[in-house]
């Protein structure tokens, strides 16, 4: 029994060594300092960037770059698109210098392709923060607030087999 236990421990040690070797080769071992460095890097890039709203759908990144060229050296222009490749109507412009952002904010409400642009400083997303609340539960369908870790009671629909009315009819008076 002791011999078998020793074999298992040796095998586990060999597996740990192999796992560490693979992680080194793949570069998947990351320090917490490298993730905080990337977060700081994102914040630094966002401080050099602006949000441009109400961009014309036919507008190209080169035209947006030319429009903001007077503010400073433009590093990158990103016009966001939907899943079909159509522009969403807003863009992000990244500058090389930080002071170019202040110059670009002066171009708020300027016109490009006959549309009035909305220019503001780009904000940094905070991971894990939700923008909106989800749908509120409807008390008509049997929602009751519960304390933490309490299972939901079984819900029996009054109409059976998933048939739910869209509205409630007012009760009519029926004497007999």
TrEMBL record:
Biased composition regions of type Low complexity, renumbered to the chain: 28-39
Cross-referenced Gene3D superfamilies: 3.30.70.330
Alphabetized GO MF terms: poly(A) binding
Highest taxon of source: Eukaryota
RRM domain mapped to chain residues: 48-124
UniProt keyword annotations, A-Z: RNA-binding
Keyword RNA-binding annotated: yes
Transmembrane domains' residue ranges: none
Annotated segments matching region Disordered: 1-45
Keyword Ion transport part of the UniProt annotation: no
Pfam family, one: RRM_1
Protein name as it appears in the record: RRM domain-containing protein
